[in-house]
Design a protein that fits this description.
Length: about 110
């Protein structure tokens, strides 16, 4: 199911982000299939970057575009423990390859 309105998606993302900061043993986060707007992506990215435990982030089919991935990658560059990022099924173009490559070089 997709959250179509920006406000509910952002509210959900902020709730998830707050939970991530409290769950110090959480290793895997999946928001698969939830439509995430840019502010929601930033909120999630910030929380994952600050986490010491999250190893895997699944954002498949979240309708993320190039701008959303660019914002996410800016935060995730500092996510030292993140080993696996899944963004399959999103609205990404060739432009997104450079954002992902920037993360791999970290």
């Amino acid at each position: 199911p997709y959250i179509c309105e920006p406000a509910p998606g952002l509210k959900l993302a902020k709730s998830v982000a707050k939970s991530l900061s409290m769950c110090t043993k959480l290793m895997f986060v999946s928001l698969k299939g939830i439509k995430l707007h840019l502010d929601a992506i930033r909120s999630i990215g910030r929380s994952v970057a600050e986490s010491q435990s999250i190893r895997r982030l699944d954002l498949e089919n979240c309708k993320i575009g190039d701008d959303g991935l660019a914002a996410l990658c800016r935060f995730l560059r500092s996510a030292a423990n993140l080993n696996d990022l899944s963004v399959a099924g999103n609205r990404l173009s060739e432009r997104s390859v450079s954002f992902l490559c920037g993360m791999v070089k970290r």
